[in-house]
Write a structure and sequence with these properties.
By secondary structure, the protein is of the alpha/beta class. 29% of the residues lie in helices and 20% in strands. A hairpin with a 2-residue loop joins strand 11 (182-185) and strand 12.
C-alpha cells in the first residue's frame, strides 16, 4: 500500500511567483497546487495537503515554530511521514526548533524541504527536492526512522546539525560536523546507521514548544567595547547572551577591551553568557588558550560543536522550559537531546 504523507506548506520560495512586471517574489501557490504541478508526487504516496502558513521565511517566528510542532504532535501516528515546505533562509532554524520541541518521542520521519528557485521558474530545483523528499519519507518509514531531517539536493541531513551555506547554490545546506543521514541516488535512498529509529516504548508524544526569544547574539570584533553590553545585561530584558568568539573561544581579556568584567557582572545578575565560534564547522575549546580559560573561570559557558542555529534555538528552548540557573542551563546546553551536540563540555 502507498504511504500516507501529510504535506504541510509554510509558504516559501518553492511556492512563490513574481509580482506584476517581474517584481519581487511573493508567496502564491496553495498547498494543493503542488500536486497539480508535480503529479508524480501523488503517484508515489497518498498525500494530504495542508496550508499552515503563507509566509516568506524571514517572517517565521517562534510562534510559528510552536504552531507547527503542535500540529505535528497531534498527527504523530496518523501518517507515515510529514513533509514541510519552508523558505531556505530560516529552514534550518525552524527545523531545529521543531526537532527540540518534539524530542525523541516522535514516531515518524519529518522532512523539511524547499528550493532556491520557485517551482514554476525555468531550471528550478523545486521538483527535484520535492520528489526526493517523498522518496526519503517512504524509505525512512519503511526503516522506522523517526527524526526531523532536511532534504535538499541528493542528501538528507539531520536538522539540528544543519546550516544554510549559500543563498544561490543548489547545494544550499551542509552539516559540517555530522555526516548526512542519507544519500539519495537513482538507485534509492541509503540511510546511515546513525539515523534515529523509532523508540517503541514511547506511547505518546510530549510536545515542549515554549521558546523564550529574549536573547542576544554578538559578534566579537577587536576594539568592541564590552561596556556597550552592560546596559543590556542590567536591563533585565536579556535572558541570555551569546558571544561569537575569536578563534576557538577567545575573547579580549586585557585593559579596557576586556570582556571578563562583563561576564562576571552578567553571572552575578543571572544572565548566562555562552561562548561559541564564528567559524563554520568549528567548535569551542575553553582550555586551548588563556583568554578562553579566563572567560570560563569568570562564568561563561562554552558550547562545543553546536551550530550557530542550534545554539540560538536551543537556548531559546531551554529558557522556554523554565531553566534559568547557570548550572541548569550549562547542563541542558551540553546535553544531547535529539543529536544536536557531541560534546560541549570544553
Amino acid at each position: 500500500m502507498k504511504k500516507k504523507i501529510l504535506f504541510i506548506v509554510m509558504g516559501v520560495t518553492i511556492g512563490m511567483t513574481q509580482g506584476r512586471g517581474g517584481g519581487a517574489l511573493r508567496p502564491h501557490w496553495s498547498a494543493k497546487s503542488f500536486l497539480v504541478i508535480v503529479p508524480t508526487l501523488g503517484k508515489k504516496a497518498n498525500i494530504v495537503c495542508e496550508q499552515l502558513e503563507n509566509l516568506d521565511s524571514s517572517n517565521v517566528n517562534p510562534g510559528h515554530w510552536s504552531t507547527l510542532a503542535r500540529r505535528i504532535g497531534r498527527v504523530n501516528t496518523r501518517y507515515d511521514g510529514i513533509i514541510v515546505t519552508h523558505g531556505t533562509d530560516t529552514m534550518a532554524i525552524t527545523a531545529t526548533a521543531t526537532a527540540l520541541a518534539l524530542g525523541r518521542g516522535l514516531q515518524i520521519p519529518v522532512v523539511f524541504t524547499g528550493s532556491q528557485l520557485p517551482l514554476m521558474a525555468f531550471g528550478s530545483d523545486a521538483r527535484f527536492n520535492l520528489e526526493n523528499s517523498v522518496k526519503t519519507v517512504i524509505e525512512a518509514s519503511d526503516q522506522k526512522i523517526a527524526e526531523v531531517m532536511i532534504v535538499f539536493g541528493d542528501r538528507a541531513l539531520r536538522a539540528v546539525r544543519t546550516t544554510k551555506i549559500s543563498e544561490a547554490s543548489f547545494t544550499a545546506f551542509d552539516s559540517p560536523l555530522f555526516p548526512p543521514l542519507a544519500r539519495i541516488s537513482a538507485t534509492g535512498v541509503m540511510f546511515s546507521d546513525q539515523a534515529y529509529r523509532r523508540i517503541q516504548t514511547r506511547s505518546s508524544l510530549e510536545v515542549r514548544d515554549q521558546f523564550d526569544s529574549s536573547i542576544l547574539v554578538i559578534d566579537i570584533m577587536p576594539g568592541l567595547q564590552s561596556d556597550v553590553l552592560l546596559d543590556i545585561v542590567r536591563s533585565k530584558k536579556c535572558h541570555g547572551l551569546i558571544l561569537r568568539s575569536l578563534g576557538a573561544g577567545n575573547l579580549p581579556t586585557v585593559g579596557g577591551y576586556s570582556f571578563i568584567p562583563l561576564i562576571k557582572e552578567a553571572s552575578k545578575r543571572g544572565v548566562p553568557i555562552f561562548i561559541t565560534t564564528k567559524f563554520f564547522g568549528g567548535r569551542t575549546h575553553s582550555d586551548l588558550y588563556e583568554p578562553g580559560q579566563s572567560a570560563l573561570d569568570a562564568g561563561a559557558i562554552f558550547t562545543g560543536d553546536l551550530t550557530d542555529d542550534a545554539l540560538q534555538v536551543k537556548l531559546m528552548w531551554a529558557l522556554g522550559q523554565g531553566y534559568r540557573s547557570h548550572t541548569d542551563l550549562q547542563n541542558v546546553i551540553h546535553k544531547n537531546f535529539v543529536g544536536e551536540v557531541s560534546s560541549a563540555s570544553s
